[in-house]
Amino acid sequence: MKDYLIAFLITAAITFALSWVVWKVAIRYRLHPAIRERDVHKRPTPRLGGIAMFLGLVAMFLISSQMPAFAIVWENPTRMWALLGAATLMVLVGVADDLWDLDWMIKLGAQFAAAWIVVGVGGIQIYYLPFGSQVIASGWPSATISILAIVVVMNAVNFIDGLDGLVAGVCLIANAVFFAYSALLARDFDNSAQTNTAVFITVVLLGVCAGFLPFNWNPAKMFMGDAGALLLGLMMASSAIVVTGNLPPQLLADNDLFGRSQLIGAFIPVILPIVVVLLPLLDFGLAVIRRTARGKSPFSPDRQHMHHRMLDMGHTDRNAVFVFYAWTAIISLSVLLMYIGTTSGWPGLYLPGVGFFFLGAIACVLVTLPPSRRAVPAASDSKVSS
User: Fold this and answer.
1) Per its UniProt entry, which superkingdom is the organism in (predicted)?
2) Which residues of 25-56 are buried (b: 16+ CB within 10 A; e: fewer)?
3) Three-state SS for 128?
4) Among the listed residues 16, 50, 277, the one whose alpha carbon sits nearest the alpha carbon of residue 156
5) How far apart, in Å, do the first and last CA atoms of the chain sit?
6) Structure confidence by residue, pLDDT tens digits, 222-277
7) Is 314 inside any structural domain?
8) How far is CA 276 from the centre of its chain?
9) Less Cβ around it within 10 Å: N or C end of the chain?
């Protein structure tokens, strides 16, 4: 665990330093796009934070390749280089879009290409679909499901990038929970290269988000842009597939491993990677339905995302962000507690996870409701994007 802490601190420090450099360069050379009609920030703000995040991630990947503690992660170097290759493609396309607003078809094609690199070259695929019994996807079904999952998560994360600190904070919370889950799985049941790779990726993402968040906090000095959001979505989806899609069926079929709640234990490895990005996925799904119902492209920008609705309800930018943080923490922590309960020797320990969810959901609903008194409108520096 000490090595993961060191990796987190190194990644956060490098990302923070590079964010400062990118911000200074972007301000000096006016590397920021014009304010769009759908934007609500009032002053031109660089959207190149994704470059610093990417370089911080690459730096930690390269450093880890020389650390004996992460030798198991580099047991299959092709997988790691494929992840870096896919991340490079996404960041290049994301930066181009942040500067010049590329056509959505170009971006979508690049996303499928990056997903194919992860799946086809890196071999990161969903081989097992563990729903209580052995269900194996192989060949083109496995590749197709994996590619679609990666593309959907990338777009889901990108779609909620609309308020200062929203994506960085949500991903920080989500990856912290997924780190705990992956680390527990590696410690207790499956100390394989795949599981350790998932743990390593989540630690690096935690460092990337922590290092960039100070520059993205309201009022933001810099946005992560499509480059940063797509990078986070790509790596989060990949880490989830690495561990969950490769869990041996016998691990989930053995009642002794999941105590007396084998059914819940078998479902949780599938559920938890989904719930940690549940809000982005929900926002993405609603946007697709809303836009296609109007005869528009699913990727055409509008101002009806969940965070926009929060602002229209009267929440301030920061309050809206905290509400999203709260929902992300409650949902993901509840499932994690259920997992811990099902893997313990104490029958029914998963019930506190259920109780935590209901109590937390009630509290979140109360803070989500419109404020009793609408705040006086003020100039906002938040980013609103697709």
Assistant:
1) Bacteria
2) ebeeeebbbeeeeebbbeeebbbbbbbbbbbb
3) strand
4) 277
5) 38
6) 999 999 999 999 999 999 888 876 665 555 544 444 444 444 444 555 666 677 77
7) yes
8) 8
9) N
Whether the upstream peptide bond of residue 219 has omega within 30° of 0, thus cis, is yes
- CA-nearest of 49, 377, 55, 29 to 221 is 49
| 76/118 Cα distance (integer angstroms) | 13
Residue 375 is assigned to a structural domain of this protein = no
Residue 251 CB coordination number (10 Å): 17
Residues 357 and 365: their CA atoms lie apart, in Å, by 12
Only one residue has tokens 């819940």, namely 264
Residue 145 belongs to a domain: yes
Residue 207 to residue 63: CA distance in whole angstroms: 14
In the numeric block, which tokens belong to residue 259? Answer: 């105590």
Entry pTM? 0.87
Question: pLDDT (tens digit, 9 = 90+) per residue, 47-67?
Answer: 999 999 999 999 999 999 999
Could you say which DSSP state residue 256 is in? G
Task: Give the residue numbers spanning the domain of 169.
Answer: 2-368
Within 10 Å of residue 380's Cβ, how many Cβ atoms?
Answer: 18
Task: Return the closest-CA partner of residue 124 out of 87, 155, 79, 81.
Answer: 79
Side-chain-facing half-sphere of 167: CA atoms under 13 Å: 40
Helix (H, G, I), strand (E, B) or coil at 41: strand
Handedness of CA 274, 129, 192, 122 (dihedral sign): negative
Handedness of CA 317, 318, 324, 327 (dihedral sign): negative
Backbone angles phi, psi at 373, to 5 degrees: -125, 120
For residue 376, tell me if it sits in a domain: no
Dihedral of CA 149/155/160/164: which sign? positive
Token match 């590696």: residue? 186
Regarding predicted confidence, which is higher, 297 or 222? 222
What confidence category does residue 204 fall into, taking pLDDT thresholds of 50, 70 and 90? very high
The count of structural domains within the chain is 1
Q: Which residues contact 144 (CB under 8 A, 6 or more apart)?
A: none
Q: Are 273 and 232 in contact (CB under 8 A)?
A: no
